[in-house]
UniProtKB/TrEMBL annotation:
<feature type="binding site">
    <location>
        <position position="231"/>
    </location>
    <ligand>
        <name>Mg(2+) 2</name>
    </ligand>
</feature>
<dbReference type="GO" id="GO:0009097">
    <property type="term" value="P:isoleucine biosynthetic process"/>
</dbReference>
<feature type="binding site">
    <location>
        <begin position="25"/>
        <end position="28"/>
    </location>
    <ligand>
        <name>NADP(+)</name>
    </ligand>
</feature>
<feature type="domain" description="KARI C-terminal knotted">
    <location>
        <begin position="183"/>
        <end position="328"/>
    </location>
</feature>
<feature type="binding site">
    <location>
        <position position="191"/>
    </location>
    <ligand>
        <name>Mg(2+) 1</name>
    </ligand>
</feature>
<dbReference type="InterPro" id="IPR000506">
    <property type="entry name" value="KARI_C"/>
</dbReference>
<dbReference type="GO" id="GO:0009099">
    <property type="term" value="P:L-valine biosynthetic process"/>
</dbReference>
<feature type="binding site">
    <location>
        <position position="48"/>
    </location>
    <ligand>
        <name>NADP(+)</name>
    </ligand>
</feature>
<dbReference type="InterPro" id="IPR036291">
    <property type="entry name" value="NAD(P)-bd_dom_sf"/>
</dbReference>
<dbReference type="InterPro" id="IPR014359">
    <property type="entry name" value="KARI_prok"/>
</dbReference>
<feature type="binding site">
    <location>
        <position position="195"/>
    </location>
    <ligand>
        <name>Mg(2+) 1</name>
    </ligand>
</feature>
<comment type="function">
    <text>Involved in the biosynthesis of branched-chain amino acids (BCAA). Catalyzes an alkyl-migration followed by a ketol-acid reduction of (S)-2-acetolactate (S2AL) to yield (R)-2,3-dihydroxy-isovalerate. In the isomerase reaction, S2AL is rearranged via a Mg-dependent methyl migration to produce 3-hydroxy-3-methyl-2-ketobutyrate (HMKB). In the reductase reaction, this 2-ketoacid undergoes a metal-dependent reduction by NADPH to yield (R)-2,3-dihydroxy-isovalerate.</text>
</comment>
<comment type="pathway">
    <text>Amino-acid biosynthesis; L-isoleucine biosynthesis; L-isoleucine from 2-oxobutanoate: step 2/4.</text>
</comment>
<keyword id="KW-0460">Magnesium</keyword>
<comment type="pathway">
    <text>Amino-acid biosynthesis; L-valine biosynthesis; L-valine from pyruvate: step 2/4.</text>
</comment>
<feature type="binding site">
    <location>
        <position position="53"/>
    </location>
    <ligand>
        <name>NADP(+)</name>
    </ligand>
</feature>
<dbReference type="InterPro" id="IPR013023">
    <property type="entry name" value="KARI"/>
</dbReference>
Length: 330
């Protein structure tokens, strides 16, 4: 079973005499920097000279310098910039400034797991990955609430990696909610699979197939939009609150019987086989290779896919409908 750590398992002393360099001040970066700072940890933010977030960080009372200078000052260097730019920034600004015993810290394991960053053997390599967008990590901290996080150690050169990672997780507020122990491999593979098969890819594909089926059979785009996209949120909110059971309890018996008897006919064994295939491409590195090459080539396939998604009829219908109804800006 999975180990879960809480406040009493983490001691902030393991990070208190250290300087934490936060590279990037975006979604995760601003939340980690501000929460650490307010927990009394020494923080220095590393940003490129023309960064649009520089004044935000400075106005919040944080020390801001270049990524290279921050990495040199930091005992813990947290790479909180987009995963696709991490390898270059690591090579140019971080690697030359890592000393034996420093910690290289991530919020997602892609670059380590797929060998896009290969750290020296004398540093700790850890991950504290909040399971939520950065603005919630920040908001929960301000309200004395927590955000669950994953903790993983890839390399433990000092024998202190777990204690330090827990101290970091506590200082950003995550130990209030719970810190789950995992590995880089598990975090990366389950994360990629989840976003591809279910959360981002699966759900949008399901919505589009449903919309197209109704519209192709003569139903109005407006009715199809509400049925296939808008109501999704209500259903997901119920599952979030009380699992599948709460959702089934809240819908009509007709909806429950129809859903239970037809759901697995739609998403049948064939879908399950496709999921196995998707997972395999994550596990054997095929997806990672494709994505790295895609970025090296300036994203030709990605741009095309984005364009096609933007031009789907459901987007135009939705924009029109959302403007007409009061719930649009709730
Ligand atoms: P963001 O896209 O929000 O990062 C933006 C920041 O990165 C900005 O400060 C930007 O500065 C800086 N930046 C961008 N490019 C460069 C560059 N070439 N050199 C230096 N700085 C650069 O990142 P996220 O917070 O979304 O992601 C950070 C990490 O956290 C990733 O590993 C991600 O997988 C992980 N993660 C993200 C979650 C999320 O909710 N977003 C959830 C859990 C993990 P500038 O103003 O100069 O552009
Ligand atoms: Mg250093
Ligand atoms: Mg993800």
């Amino acid at each position: 079973t999975t180990t879960v750590y809480y406040e009493e398992d983490a001691e902030q002393k393991h990070i208190e005499d250290k300087t934490v360099a936060i590279l990037g001040y975006g979604s995760q970066g601003h939340a980690h920097a501000l929460n650490l700072h307010e927990s009394g940890v020494d923080v220095v933010v590393g940003l490129r000279p023309d960064s649009s977030s520089r004044s935000d960080a400075e106005d919040a009372g944080l020390d801001v310098t270049t990524p290279a200078e921050a990495a040199s000052q930091g005992d813990v260097v947290s790479l909180l910039i987009p995963d696709t730019v991490q390898p270059d920034v690591y090579e140019q600004a971080v690697e030359p400034n890592l000393e034996a015993g420093d910690t290289l810290q991530f919020a997602h394991g892609f670059n380590i797991h797929y060998n896009q960053i290969q750290p020296p053997e004398d540093v700790d390599v850890t991950m504290v990955a909040p399971k939520s967008p950065g603005h919630l990590v920040r908001r929960n901290y301000e309200r004395d609430q927590g955000t669950p996080a994953l903790l993983a150690v890839y390399q433990d050169a000092t024998d202190e990696a777990v204690n330090e990672g827990l101290a970091y997780a506590k200082a950003i507020g995550c130990a209030r909610a719970g810190v789950l122990e995992t590995t880089f491999q598990e975090e990366v593979e389950s994360d990629l699979f989840g976003e591809q098969a279910i959360l981002c890819g699966g759900i949008t594909s399901l919505v589009k197939h449903g919309y197209e089926t109704l519209v192709d059979n003569g139903y109005s785009p407006e009715a199809a939009y509400f049925e296939c996209l808008n109501e999704m949120k209500l259903i997901v909110d119920l599952m979030y609150e009380g699992g599948l059971a709460e959702m089934w309890n809240s819908v009509s018996d007709t909806a429950e019987y129809g859903g239970l008897s037809r759901g697995d006919e739609i998403l049948d064994d064939h879908v399950r086989e496709n999921m196995e295939e998707t997972l395999e491409q994550v596990q054997n590195g095929e997806f990672a290779r494709e994505w790295v090459l895609e970025n090296k080539a300036n994203r030709p396939g990605y741009t095309q896919l984005r364009e096609a998604e933007k031009n789907h009829e459901i987007e135009e219908v939705g924009e029109r409908l959302r403007a007409l109804f009061a719930w649009s800006d709730e």
